[in-house]
Amino acid sequence: MAAKKPFVLRLDEGMMKALEKWGADEFRSTNGQLEWIIREALKKAGRLPKPKPEDKNSG
Description:
- By secondary structure, the chain is mainly α.
- The chain has a domain at about 15-45.
- Helices cover about 45% and strands about 0% of the residues.
- The protein contains 2 helices and no strands.
- The chain is elongated.
- It starts with 12 loop residues before the first helix and ends in a 15-residue tail after the last helix.
């Protein structure tokens, strides 16, 4: 698994509540939901980094 880099994200209260509810509705943590949203946006934009050859067979 690739290393994860922590960072601070500031959201207004309404957006945070909506994100928490969306995550809960899909059985994800808030952090997991954010990762999913970002990954999907990167994929849609064609900007998702290509997996390294050793990562292709994992998971």
